[in-house]
Design goal:
CATH class of the largest domain: Alpha Beta
Order of helices and strands: HEEHHEEHEEEEEEEHHEHEHEHEH
CATH topology of the largest domain: Rossmann fold
InterPro entries: GxDLY, SGNH_hydro, SGNH_hydro_sf
Helix content: 25-40%
Radius of gyration: 21 Å
Keywords: Coiled coil
Pfam family, one: GxDLY
Protein name: Lysophospholipase L1
Largest sheet: 6 strands, antiparallel
Length: about 375
């Protein structure tokens, strides 16, 4: 009788893939909601003390899906300086990993960057049993005792109910390096904006940009539901001290007619509160199926033209602080190799998006 092939378990066979357990219980645990930590990426955190991207009880009624997705913590960051030799994290999630095309490390995990602005290097990602909603994970251990700037990126597609940062008993924690300005860069958009389908949080394109531009970034990407409703425009306009608003929501508009209805109105509402804040409108990245589907290409071209005309008309009417960028350029050569499913970027795709947007954003901010 032929031998039956058995399923292998890499977690048992490869020690590098095993989940590292906390070696002792001597960590001192801190809430990042307290000083000297700084939590970035949540526009209403000071009022609500929740890791949530929109207010819990807004003056404007939220679509049900947007209200739910606002609990996903995409773009959130914990920033601090420490001389810890060991660093760990305790996390209580709102739910377990459940996506078929995005790793649990990106959907539900944190990752850790070490270094000051301009010198941030990836170090580690939380490793845990993806079936769990509560976990502990060691981010580093047995490091030399010296001060380091730490950035921990929140999960992209899951809510965080609680998070605690643990350090060795002798460690000191101080404030993070300050931003160059209190003004924030705000992204409103779709699942791609939210970070689908990065392998870990730090590879969402807004998080990559945050390592290149020393400002606070707010990620208001709502998967499948970035539709440009006026209620969202009013809420986005409530965020104080904006440096730039980026509108990247074409991909969730069902038609060019829908985009023509929402985009000018979204900008009008925002301009009522922020007359001079730069606004950047980005058309959709290219999709793999465009090569084979004429109708898809034609519809995307119509939506692109809507965005171009909207920006051009506003410029002609005297708005000198509105810009357009053709998103189809962002993935570059072999764009079809930069996604998981023909639409949502891999880490390579997100890096290319950030590479294309970095000089443009820096130019807009400097002007």
């Amino acid at each position: 009788m032929a031998n039956q092939q058995q399923s292998s378990n890499p977690l048992h066979l490869d020690s590098n893939m095993r989940i590292q357990q906390l070696v002792d219980d001597t960590y001192h645990w801190f809430s990042p909601l307290e000083q000297p930590f700084h939590v970035a990426g949540f526009g209403w955190l000071n009022e609500e003390r929740l890791y949530r991207r929109l207010p819990t009880h807004p003056a404007w009624e939220l679509p049900e899906a947007v209200n739910s997705l606002a609990n996903c913590t995409a773009g959130g960051q914990i920033r601090f300086t420490t001389n810890a030799t060991s660093l760990a994290i305790q996390v209580k999630l709102a739910g377990a990993a459940n996506m078929y095309h995005m790793p649990a490390t990106g959907q539900c995990g944190f990752d850790c960057y070490i270094g000051a602005y301009g010198e941030q290097f990836y170090y580690s990602t939380t490793l845990y049993d993806a079936k769990l909603t509560e976990f502990e994970s060691v981010l580093f251990a047995d490091m030399e005792r010296e001060y380091r700037s730490i950035t921990l990126n929140f999960p992209l597609y899951q809510g965080v109910v609680e998070v605690w940062v643990g350090v060795d008993p002798a460690a000191q924690i101080t404030s993070p390096i300050a931003y160059e300005s209190k003004e924030k860069i705000i992204f409103y958009g779709t699942s791609i904006t939210q970070g689908g389908c990065a392998s870990r949080p730090g590879m969402a394109y807004t998080n990559i940009l945050s390592r290149r531009i020393n400002r606070e970034f707010l990620n208001l990407g709502f998967s499948g539901n970035g539709k440009g409703e006026p209620e969202l425009a009013h809420l986005v306009a409530e965020i104080p001290d904006p440096a730039c608003l980026v509108l990247d929501y074409e991909a969730n508009c069902v038609s060019s007619e829908r985009l023509q209805q929402t985009l000018p109105e979204f900008i009008r509402i925002y301009r009522n509160q922020h007359a001079l804040t730069p606004i950047l409108v980005i058309s959709s990245i290219s999709y793999a199926k465009e090569r084979f589907q004429t109708q898809l290409r034609q519809e995307k071209e119509k939506r692109k033209q809507v965005q171009m005309r909207t920006v051009e008309q506003l410029q002609e009417n005297g708005d000198a602080n509105i810009y357009y960028y053709e998103g189809a350029q962002l993935l570059g050569e072999n764009a079809h190799e930069c996604t998981v499913d023909g639409v949502h970027p891999t880490d390579l795709g997100f890096m290319r998006m950030a590479d294309g947007l970095t000089p443009l954003l820096k130019k807009i901010l400097s002007s």
